[in-house]
Design goal:
The protein has 173 residues and is mainly α. The chain is built from eight helices and two strands. β1 and β2 form a beta hairpin. It starts with a helix and ends in an 18-residue tail after the last helix.
Length: 173
């Protein structure tokens, strides 16, 4: 599928809606209890918030303003463990929704054209990338974490399903 900004925005717009529908009224039994190696839905929403603040739009701005001459600021993949402390999942969902709406407004204001999609940036670990790869990754990053949330939740009943486990791909390693 060829990248189109309008299609990317479709997914990016739906992520907060999807997460609220999936998680908003669930008990902490479903949404908590993660570790640094196995993030819970609570941890993932915190991670997405950190990305909204420090990753996608800030990096797009660096590409537009500096190209590959200025590397991106490294991203702290575990910042949510400190930043989310003391907040409820509802507070995190609210914050994510607000930040995502602001970032989508910022993205639309960038007026991303095919020429801008080809502009280069410099990732501190991965090297040279372009705007299209950055924005495509933002979309897939959302989808990846939605999958991670569903997997985490399904694993809670992995022992309870008994013999049906063999038919449930989500429980296969």
């Amino acid at each position: 599928m060829q990248f189109k900004i309008e299609q990317a925005i479709e997914i990016l717009t739906q992520t907060p809606v999807t997460l609220r529908a999936m998680l908003g009224s669930l008990s902490e039994d479903w949404t908590g209890g993660g570790t640094e190696d196995n993030w819970s839905p609570y941890d993932i929403v915190g991670h997405l918030i950190h990305g909204e603040k420090t990753d996608w739009i800030p990096r797009a701005r660096i590409i537009l303003e500096h190209g590959a001459s200025r590397p991106f600021t490294p991203f702290d993949r575990w910042a949510q463990f400190e930043n989310s402390r003391g907040k409820t999942l509802t507070q995190l969902l609210d914050e994510f929704e607000t930040l995502r709406a602001e970032n989508l407004d910022a993205l639309r204001a960038m007026d991303i054209t095919p020429d801008k999609l080809a502009l280069k940036g410099m990732h501190p670990e991965l090297g040279e990338i372009d705007m299209e790869k950055l924005l495509s990754t933002w979309v897939v990053h959302d989808l990846n974490h939605i999958r991670q949330i569903v997997k985490f939740m399904a694993d809670k009943y992995s022992k309870n399903v008994g013999v049906w486990k063999q038919y449930l791909l989500i429980l296969q390693r």
